[in-house]
Amino acid sequence: MKPPTTIPEPVARVAELMASFGPTWYLCGGWAVDAWLGKVTREHGDLDITVFEDAEPALFKHLADWQMVAHDGEFFDGGTAEPWNGRPLTLPAHIHARAPEDRTDMPDRVDNAAKQGFGLEIVINARTDTDWILNREPSVTLPLDRCSGQSPWGWPTALPEVLLFFKATAYAGTHNYLRRRDHLDFERLLVRLTPGQRSWLHEAISIIDLDHPWLGVLSL
Prior knowledge:
Elements (H helix, E strand, L loop, with lengths): L8 H10 L6 E4 H9 L9 E6 L3 H7 L4 E5 L21 E6 L21 E8 L3 E5 L4 E4 L4 E3 L5 E3 L1 H10 L10 H11 L4 H14 L5 H5 L2
Parallel strand pairs: 2-5
Antiparallel strand pairs: 1-2, 3-4, 4-5, 5-6, 6-7, 8-9
Helix pairs in contact: 2-5, 4-5, 4-6
């Protein structure tokens, strides 16, 4: 599939940055939704990619000039920011990163990083030799050869059902649960899901939340 002549600048910039990164990485989050739709549908606060936890040392080396703030089990409550020094992260984890040309003071708190110019969010995920572990307890997995593809923008992108699973479940039990933008992304991608993708997404969400409002739509 050929990419379009014009790719949004934030995506093109990160794709160029990651082109020489050896380990597996995928575009994810809201920009990935737009990538599958082939157009920009809304504003985005930052750009998300995902890498697997065994790639952390390579990631730290690859972004050596970037300012990075770790957000994992140790600081997942949004507490005081610390520069990531390459320490192994405790999942669930992600990293907020700011480009060298934008370097300035570190944020006062981890949960303020995106608002202070840390425009790249790197989500760290677990895997086995064959599967992406999308959720540990309870377990939800998907074979690695079924979880990503080349989007119309031409870069490795988490498949729509994976994106929607995370949007459906990532913030369960918090005030961000089922954000309006996640509902809109669900509506936009739903018509593009194959019956097999719909069935997998229905089953995966059911494992986490039997009362999830998307289940009724997915069962139609």
